[in-house]
């Protein structure tokens, strides 16, 4: 019997969908990536642009994406084909979703390397290696960790196996529970860290850094970074949230749910930033523009000097690993569900094959922190940086433009209203922004940003 004849699994309640979507959105993007790219791009003005992008591009596209999944109840590629047929458009729109499938796999390949750092930091914390450590010592430990490619590959392999294990058994089982219990604990831990940073670190310096908007230092590639990150952090532009939307219970309101998830996601990122930067400014050997190691160098110093730091530190990195885990699943789900819904593969086979490709691509990223760290691609990027550039700066924004145009222009008002929980001016505002602001905003930022990077 073809797999697609089986009844389709569904999230068992509205809460579970919110939890799963939040689990996808809240991840390394919030805790690891946001602080480090905010630091690389000079803080304040970047943060403001990021917030504007969440509002004018992220949320409208996220609503559109959930709409596409919920309305069709199938995997992203088939969903787009179905919607294109329904609205009399060319089936070539499917390339929008196929690009998303590829983007998700490329993101997973390097996401897994960083998730591997978080996994590795759990036993490192327990070992007491960070007790009373100073900033120079913490940097040295992190660099030592990166120096061994085999070690990075080992943790990368473990993380890919963890991800595929869940994806193979089906994402709607089990996942909700992890998010329901563990994410609130992570949130509380972030608040504890924040308390520590307020009392021990340079808190007011950090607040000024993150929220004083100095536009003089803002370049177009920082603006593109902020836009790309708005997509990355909400898990949109590639079909992940569409895939999750296809499992959404009928009576769950789309727009309200999206707003809840986006608000939670943004709060976590800002709190992570406010917890990390006071420590950075109190540590002469760490720069805000430290790069990808910022989280892993700064926080262990805080844990090393707080009472119960071994316990809190180990718990923190365990929970960051779980946050990464609930996100990584959504990165590969569009690919796996496509293979399954097409009826040609079982979840097991699709999972092993597609997970294997991500694992292979990730090798290049593991080597980017040691043997092949030089920027050999266009003279600008190593493999890790290129994977991030290609997805966050190019594929997600382009996916976002296409989704905004597809849903904004190819569907009549009544077709949209039918599936939407908002009406009146709120609905009109969403549709207006999606049609007339989001696509052009992304196009302008995208072209100016790319020109700025390559010229
Ligand atoms: N949003 C996740 C994070 O912030 C990463 C992620 C999961 C993602 N699924 C995605 C990014 C889909 C882009 C597209 O860590």
- How many strand units? 0
Number of helices: 18
CA-atom Rg in angstroms: 21 Å
What's the architecture in CATH terms?
Orthogonal Bundle
CATH class: Mainly Alpha
> Which strand-content bin applies to the residues?
under 5%
Helix content: over 70%
- Taken from the alpha-carbon principal axes, the silhouette is globular
The largest pleated sheet is described as: none
Descriptive account of the structure:
The protein contains 18 helices and no strands. It is mainly alpha-helical and 455 residues long. It has one domain (14-454): Hydantoin permease (Orthogonal Bundle). Helix 3 crosses helix 18, helix 5 crosses helix 16 and helix 9 packs across helix 12. Residues 1-6 have low confidence and may be disordered. The protein binds tryptophan. Tryptophan (TRP) binds at residues 24-25, 27-30, 104, 107, 232-233, 235, 238, 240, 327, 330-331, 396. Tryptophan is lined by residues 24-25, 27-30, 104, 107, 232-233, 235, 238, 240, 327, 330-331, 396.
Could you give a quick summary of the protein structure above?
This protein has 455 residues and is mainly alpha-helical.
